[in-house]
C-alpha cells in the first residue's frame, strides 16, 4: 500500500529526517508519534507529495509520489495540521471546489458533497461561510476535504489538536470508521489516542524512526524487567519485614509505600453504609474493609453526625487487626516490586504472603505503557539504544 | 483542463468575496472617471479619440494590478491552503494557469468598465471603431503581461503587502524602462524595447505590429513560467 524506502530530507538548517523506512498494509491504522520537531510533519508532507525527499522513494500502490505524482496523489487524502480552508468560501462551495480539484467525476460531485456534509455532521451549515465555523467544524470540514475523493490512503496530521474532549471523541470515532475502508496514517501528541485507535505505532525522534511495532506489543518488547504493584493488608512493619527479607534474598527491588486509598471508592462505600442500618452492619461486620476505616476513621469522626461516630466504632472494631501501630491509619501497604531479570515471581510472592498470613488485596503486573516507551525512546539521543527496538524489514 | 477551470472558478469567486478587489475596482473607476472628466469634459478636445483618455487609464493599471494580483499565491501560503493545492492531483502548472486565467477574467472586467468612456464620447461625435477595439486589445495584452508580473510577485512572499509592493516595483521598472534611459542613446536602444507603455502606441493607432504582440505575450509566458518555478521550488526546500 504505502512504501517509504530509506527516505531522507535535509533542510538548510540541518534539521529534517534521515533514513525513514517503513511500509503500511491496506486497512491499517498507524499512529505516528514523536516530540515536536521530530519530523512527523515533514515525513507526512513527503508522503503526500507536498515536499520531495532529498533521498529515497515513496510509493503508494506502487506509484511513486514523485514521478507519477498525479496518479499517486489522487489516491491520497491529506489533512494538514491546520485544515486548508478558504475562509471566504461557503462550506458547500469549498467542498465542490475540492471535489473538482481532486477529479471527482462531474456528475458525482453534488452527490459526494452531500454525502460528506451528512457524514461529517455539517448539515445546516452548507451555506455558512467557512470563516464563521467553530474549530471543531473546521476540523470536520478538513476531514471532509481529505476523504471526498475516496482515497486509499488517508494521512492525518494531528487531527484532534485543539479540539475539546467531546469533539476529540467524535473525530476519533470518525477516524475509526474511516479506518474500515481506508488505510490511515495519523500523527498525534496524545498517546491514549494511539492506544485507542491504532493497530501499529511508529515513533520518530530527531528525524529518525526509533520504533515500529504493534500497539499492544511494543510495551512488552521494550520491557527489560518484571514489575508488580502489590497491596497487602496488614501491619506495615510486619509486611516490610517479610517482604524485605524475601526481596533481598531474591534480588528484587522492593519499594514500599503506604499509598492513600482511592478516595472515590471509599466515599461511595461509606455513603452506602450510612444509608441504612442493615447495610452498615452487613458491610462493617462482614468486610473488614480498609477503605471504610481510613475514610471514616479520621475525617468523619470530627463531624457531629451521630451516624458517623457509631460507624467509626464499628469500623474500628472490625478492622482492629489492620490498623497499624504507627499513627497512620492505613491498614494496608502498597509496594512496587521490580525484578531486573524478567522472571515472573508472582506465584512465589503469593505463597510467601499466604504463609505469613498477609492477604494480598491487589496484585497488578506493571506493563510499560506507551507513555513509558515514548518517553524512553524520545529522551535518549536518536540512533542509540532505541534502535534495537525498531523492527526493520 | 478541468482542474484549471476549477481553480480559476475558485479564484474568481474569491475575487468577488474579498473586499480588496472591490477596493481596487473602486479606486480604478473613481480615478479613471475623474481623469475622463478632466481630459474630456473640462478640456473639451476638438476631436473624438479614445487615445485622449487612454494614457491615464493605462497608468491606473500600474496601481490597480498589483492590488488585484497580490493575494493570488501569497494568500494560499499564508492560509496553508497551498498544502491542499500541492497535494491534489493538479500540477503546479495547472494551479498557476488557473490563477492566471482568473486574473485575465478580472482584467476583462476592468476593461469593460472602461468602455463606458468611449461610449460617452461616441455621443458627441464619430469614434473610430477600429482604433477603439485595437486599443482595447492592446490594453488587454499589456494588462495580461502585467497580471503575469503581479502573479510572479505574489508567489515570492506569503505577505500580501510585500507581494503588492514587489509587483508594483517590478511593473514600475518595466514601465519606466523607456523614459529612464532617454538621455543615453546606446543604453536606451538596449532597454527601450522592454518598455511596457511604448509597445502599445502602434496598436492604439490601429496598427497591429507583430513584435509588440509577441513582446506582451512572451512577457506573460515568461512570468507565468517563473511563478510555476518559484512554487515548484518550494517542494525542494
UniProtKB/TrEMBL annotation, chain A:
Keywords associated with the record: ATP-binding, Nucleotide-binding, Transport
Entry annotated with the keyword Chaperone: no
Annotated segments matching region Disordered: 278-322
Domain of life: Bacteria
PROSITE patterns referenced in this protein's UniProt entry, alphabetically: ABC_TRANSPORTER_2
Record has Nucleotide-binding as a keyword: yes
Family to which this protein belongs: Belongs to the ABC transporter superfamily.
Name used for this protein in its record: ABC transporter domain-containing protein
UniProtKB/TrEMBL annotation, chain B:
Coiled-coil segments on the chain, per record: none
InterPro entries registered for this protein in UniProt: ABC-2_transporter_component, ABC2_TM
Subcellular locations according to the entry: Cell membrane
Keywords: Cell membrane, Membrane, Transmembrane, Transmembrane helix
Lipid bilayer topology: Multi-pass membrane protein
Location of the ABC-2 type transporter transmembrane domain: 4-190
Principal cellular location given in the protein's record: membrane
Transmembrane segments: 12-38, 50-69, 100-120, 132-154, 161-178, 213-231
Pfam families reported in the protein's UniProt record: ABC2_membrane (PF01061)
PANTHER family associated with the record: MEMBRANE COMPONENT OF ABC TRANSPORTER YHHJ-RELATED, MULTIDRUG ABC TRANSPORTER PERMEASE YBHS-RELATED
Record's protein name: ABC-2 type transporter transmembrane domain-containing protein
Organism: Saccharibacillus endophyticus
